[in-house]
Amino acid sequence: MDKYRILVKGVVQYEDKYLVVRKWYDDRVSEPYQWEFIDGEIDFGEEPDKAVLRIIFEQTGLSTTMDHVLYTWSFMTGDIFNIGISYLCRVSFDGVIMSEDLMDSKWIMKEEMIGYISSKVLEDIEKSDLN
User: Fold this and answer.
1) Domain membership flag for residue 127
2) CATH number for the domain harbouring residue 108
């Protein structure tokens, strides 16, 4: 049987800054907490556009509007094929209320992303029309 997992990522923008969050990644690596954009798995039957808004709200308390798709990605985890869709989402208020899953959050400029976000995600962003 084919196994798929669909993920969404919200690149949340407030004015000229973007939200990054620090969350648990993997305790088998030297730094188990990593900086990342908001992401999560969609529920069965849920539309990806609505899922990204729900996940952002659940993890940060922010009500966002979805602007457009930035890029897609995929990777294998064992026998599961993961497919991801990244969205640019905008907010008019920067007050974050972190869920228990998050350790920290920061609003950063696009130029600062290199210090927080993985090189693979940065490559995908460079190919997108993030502005």
Assistant:
1) no
2) 3.90.79.10
User: 83-131, pLDDT tens digit by residue?
Assistant: 999 999 999 999 999 999 899 999 999 889 988 888 878 887 787 777 5
Three state DSSP letters for the chain? CCCEEEEEEEEEEECCEEEEEEEECCCCCCCCEEEECEEEECCCCCCHHHHHHHHHHHHHCCCCEEEEEEEEEEEEECCEEEEEEEEEEECCCCCCCCCCCEEEEEEEEHHHHHHCCCHHHHHHHHHCCCC
128 lies in some domain = no
Is 84 in contact with 118 (CB distance < 8 Å)? no
What is the residue range of 74's domain? 4-118
